[in-house]
TrEMBL record:
TM region(s), chain numbering: 202-227
Signal peptide: 1-18
Superkingdom of this protein's organism: Eukaryota
Protein name as it appears in the record: ZP domain-containing protein
Keyword Membrane attributed: yes
Keywords: Membrane, Signal, Transmembrane, Transmembrane helix
Classification lineage: Eukaryota, Metazoa, Spiralia, Lophotrochozoa, Mollusca
């Protein structure tokens, strides 16, 4: 194999390791069939999932570079449909699942939206009589989101609609991809968050520098192996030594 191809492949691998993963916004829509998956990014995480309908009760993993947007179409499957979110990278993220409401409208009694953490001791229920909710983070690495409608509600219906942003609480991740939690759920001060961000940037810098060093070492090793094991180069070097001019000291220092 051409060593230039190997060098190019190695360099690309090092760059891929050093570059952070782009943020992905997964949209989950509730309808009368279940849960519809849609990745709004130009390069989806799972292209084969686009537009796929999942059954209620599906579990989704939360990472520092992935968030979910929950929508409604004024209806749910089987009058009760839930889905669960689990923080999968606790090493970088805290055991908290955050929710940011952007749209919330419940027009009739008999419709409930419930958030319940893994310990089931911290819940938030939204209904026609209580639609007040600010951005908050629920303790624990798991959060269950459930929508229920009473049998008196005729579906499909426009009696309710919502839009929630669900994401993991990951200190140090840029603010433009992870929203801040509200004051009640905030345990880290602004100083601590800034320090965590600086630490994360330093770690990413060290990792990037290490990847670049590894790439250069691999390049040097490939070049050494190539020149050492190439018979054409050895033969050329040996011929150059044989054909090199010599000086006869006894004949006045003339070249032969």
């Amino acid at each position: 194999m051409d060593p230039r191809i190997l060098l190019l492949a190695t360099l690309c691998l090092g760059v891929a390791i050093a570059v952070p993963i782009a943020m992905h916004d997964i949209q989950i829509t509730f309808n009368n069939s279940g849960l519809v998956w849609r990745d709004s990014n130009k390069m989806p995480l799972y292209d084969r999932y686009q537009g796929r309908v999942w059954g209620c009760g599906r579990m989704w993993s939360l990472t520092p570079w992935k968030k979910f947007t929950l929508f409604s179409e004024g209806q749910v499957a089987g009058r009760s449909c839930g889905t669960e979110f689990v923080v999968s990278e606790t090493g970088r993220c805290m055991n908290k699942v955050c929710v940011g409401p952007e749209i919330l409208h419940i027009d009739k009694n008999g419709i409930e939206i419930k958030f319940e953490n893994m310990y089931k001791n911290e819940t938030k229920t939204l209904s026609h009589s209580d639609m007040t909710m600010q951005t908050r983070c629920f303790s624990g690495k798991s959060l269950m989101f459930t929508v229920t409608t009473d049998t008196t509600i005729t579906l499909p219906s426009n009696d309710f609609r919502f839009k929630f942003i669900v994401y993991a609480d990951c200190p140090g991740v840029p603010k433009d991809v992870i929203m801040e939690s509200d004051k009640d759920s905030e345990e880290l001060s602004k100083t601590a968050e800034l320090k965590a961000a600086q630490t994360m940037n330093m770690v990413l810098g060290i990792v990037t520098a290490g990847c670049i060093c590894v790439v250069f070492l691999i390049i040097l090793l490939l070049n050494y192996c190539y020149f050492r094991n190439n018979p054409d180069l050895k033969q050329h070097h040996h011929s150059a030594r044989i054909n090199a001019p010599t000086v006869d000291v006894t004949d006045g220092g003339k070249f032969k």
